[in-house]
């Protein structure tokens, strides 16, 4: 069985078991192929399905054109959820803004593009609030459909070859939130998530497009002509940290769109000039010789607006306390390297986390040159976060904040009786 046949088999399993199935369609190559596969299976079975597209407003014109012609092609076979709402979206282009909002009413004059006339807005979703981030919205959208159809599955086009985190999401032996034993699913919410093309390589995606003569986002042709390798071709929000290295391509591929982006979010032009360089925390960063990393961190913090500085200091205080009192989980190899380097550490025996690693308590270090740099609490790592405009401090391992956790618990309470 090849990966195409395996994906078809998985989709048939999903359609057998769920009352309603919908595809999360971004306009990228992976979700596009998954949509075509889902449409094929649904047509063979004579059933409707849903297509969910979160419109981020600030994107390549070619992506919007591909999305619009695809939704038009499937409008008689699928329920279309073209979402244009002002949820919060992370930005790494600015030290002043930690997020921006697509289709924010007060900034209509600055919109990169207008929403289509058939788009769904915040008025269509009773659960919407100004506090929602984009990833919150997509979770709550799934729960909203689950309340309506009872048994719902969301198809997501992630491939494990894209990153280690995606590989872990499917193959980790500690995965326990799986549906009926299938490792390519997740039951963290009432709406089950499934990854039918998780084992596809990027070459499989383009082979499927060619063999089946499927439509695709023509932006990828221009990426190819521009010399961007297949494995680095991404279609995503241009202001995310992951997109800083390639944001300059907008200037070459779609200069008109670039002109609108510059006026849409603070710091875009700087990111276009220096994204992917040490100026924005990429590659190997250095510090002035007369500073320690701790001193350099405070120097960088002093250049920031008050609210931004306080955010980073709060994250730092939380991290320092965590490593002193609870400790981070490290593997035996990293623990040995720390001991060899003369770092004073205290290794615990057990942890509440589901891991074979051991909890290690330690003070913040200046720098660490061994493997797993991102796992060790250092002031240099904090400097990287500041330079990257990583307001959430993902580089330091932070996830949900207290407010976000409280919001999640409120959602669980709201839907517990459904």
From TrEMBL:
GO terms for molecular function: catalytic activity. Gene3D superfamilies: HUPs. Signal peptide: none annotated. Pfam families: DUF3440, PAPS_reduct. Residues 22-222 form the Phosphoadenosine phosphosulphate reductase domain. GO terms for biological process: cellular response to oxygen levels. It comes from the Bacteria. This is Phosphoadenosine phosphosulfate reductase family protein. The lineage of its organism: Bacteria, Pseudomonadati, Bacteroidota, Bacteroidia, Bacteroidales.
């Amino acid at each position: 069985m090849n990966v195409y046949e395996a994906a078809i088999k998985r989709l048939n399993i999903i359609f057998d078991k769920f009352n309603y199935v919908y595809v999360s369609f971004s306009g990228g190559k992976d979700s596009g192929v998954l949509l075509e596969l889902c449409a094929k299976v649904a047509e063979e079975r004579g059933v409707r399905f849903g297509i969910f597209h979160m419109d981020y407003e600030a994107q390549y014109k070619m992506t919007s054109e591909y999305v619009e012609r695809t939704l038009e092609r499937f409008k008689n076979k699928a329920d279309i959820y073209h979402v244009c709402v002002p949820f919060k979206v992370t930005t790494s282009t600015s030290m002043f803004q930690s997020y921006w909002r697509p289709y924010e009413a007060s900034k209509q004059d600055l919109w990169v593009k207008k929403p289509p006339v058939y788009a769904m807005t915040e008025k269509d979703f009773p659960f919407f609030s100004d506090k929602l981030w984009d990833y919150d919205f997509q979770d709550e959208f799934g729960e909203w459909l689950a309340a309506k159809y009872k048994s719902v599955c969301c198809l997501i086009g992630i491939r494990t070859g894209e990153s280690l985190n995606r590989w872990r999401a499917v193959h980790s032996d500690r995965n326990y939130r799986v549906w009926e034993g299938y490792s390519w699913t997740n039951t963290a919410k009432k709406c089950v998530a499934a990854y039918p093309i998780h084992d596809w390589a990027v070459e499989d995606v383009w082979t499927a497009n060619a063999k089946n003569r499927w439509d695709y986002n023509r932006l990828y042709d221009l990426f190819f002509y521009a010399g961007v390798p297949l494995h680095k071709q991404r279609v995503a929000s241009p202001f995310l940290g992951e997109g800083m290295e390639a944001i300059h391509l907008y200037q070459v591929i779609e200069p008109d769109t670039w002109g609108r982006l510059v006026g849409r979010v603070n710091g875009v032009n700087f990111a276009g000039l220096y994204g992917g360089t040490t100026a924005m925390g990429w590659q190997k960063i250095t510090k002035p010789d007369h500073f320690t990393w701790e001193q350099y961190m405070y120097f960088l913090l002093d250049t920031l607006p008050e609210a931004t500085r306080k955010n980073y200091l709060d994250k730092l205080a939380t991290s320092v306390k965590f490593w002193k009192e609870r400790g981070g989980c490290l593997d035996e190899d990293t623990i040995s390297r720390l001991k060899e380097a003369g770092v004073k550490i205290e290794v615990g025996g057990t942890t509440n986390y589901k891991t074979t690693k051991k909890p290690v308590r330690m003070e913040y270090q200046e720098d660490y040159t061994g493997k797993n740099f991102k796992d060790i609490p250092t002031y240099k790592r904090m400097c990287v976060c500041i330079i990257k405009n990583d307001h959430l401090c993902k580089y330091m391992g932070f996830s949900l904040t207290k407010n976000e956790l409280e919001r999640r618990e409120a959602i669980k309470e709201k839907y517990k009786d459904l």
